[in-house]
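Posting for a labmate who doesn't have an account.
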Amino acid sequence: MKHILVIGGGIIGLISAILLKNQQYEVTLIEQNEKLGGLLQSSIASDGLFFDYGTHIPRETGVKELDTILFESLNKNEWNMYDYLKVGNYFEGKLNIDSQFIDVTRMDSDVFVKGLFDLLHTTPIEDSVNDADIYLEQYFGETFKREIFAPILEKLYGKKLCELHKNAHKLFGYTRIICGDQFLSSNFKKSSFFDDKLANTNNKIGISGLKSYYPKKAGIYKFVEELEILAVRTGVNIMKNKTINSMELDERMVKEVVLSDGLNLQCDYLIWTIPPSFLINKIDVDHQGAIPQFRSVGLFNFEFDTPFLVDNHYIYCNESIYKTFRITLYSNLVSSVQSSPYTCTVEILGDLDEIQLISPESVVAELLSMKIISSKAKVLFNKNTIIKNGFPIMTNNHYDNAHEIEETIHKKIENIIMLGKNSNKSFFMEDSLRDAYEILKKKDLI
């Protein structure tokens, strides 16, 4: 029987372990923390309020085997199911409750006309383009690049476009824009070239049929707890509070992994789901790459005494002068009719020192300005959390270094498989899960 070690207890590691155990392998999952789930966590305040660490709402992947593991065991009476998520965005001083995508028709008319002219004259992008400045200009045109994407991405990453990788905007979902009413959008989208660039005007239009899920009375960590129960029932050996001390290699094959407590584990395959850079110093390889840079994430959690003015699940703030990045409205997620408690989390990306200086009052002022809360709303509870290394800064150096590390590891180790967003293959949960599934399938492990 093959012994497979899965390193990292995030959602990718957890689902991969279950998939592999279903094939009757001996599977051990190693997690350095007390809890599984990675960043898929929730905190509970003293009065029972819950807040997520940057909500990621689980969504079906369209792969039957994956979706069976992810959702079949859920007690549907305890979960809300959504055909689509109500995502809105704030841009140019206006709140759009119907779409997460930026509506460029709200810009100054001269800018909009020039931007649309540039967009309609874009051509296919050459493979040699690597940085975001050139890529976004060739993709959306010079005007929209300058007026929209440059200020927004500098706000989020703290870097100029020329310093960022060409895919940096995709990590935040800035893949399309709205350029007109639905009649115009539908006609433009008949062209596959413009379909990739232009969005429908409403989240309801063109939905995929894949469902999203969120618990009715708890935070998103309930999802991790349910999957952990399933993993244990399936027979996965879960080891928490464990780290790797060293590895025993024999002709490019990891034969044994030694944990920090001295325990030796036999290994036929090593599934690595945490950042590849953590592996370099375990395999005696000298790699002089760039040091990864991260943006800190401030999580500003609030309870208000009155309902929100919108029924959205998320609101993205695309106003470059505002600190806010994303607002998660929990009372809208747990109930179809807004009900108390009226809670939300406001996420802010920035330098650690910068975030530490932000006051809850200034965050509330932005919510008020965006018309998400009423002028009469009072704060009943607030608590701030800062994740120091919360989000990778996708510079070209970061991207190239990650791939160099991965190539170096594969040259050194033959029986390793690297999965998940930490290997820079994908970012969103359902995309990462599909990628992991396809990779394990190609390796003939499932």
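Reply:
Got it, the structure tokens are right above this. The CA atoms of residues 401 and 407 lie 10 Å apart.
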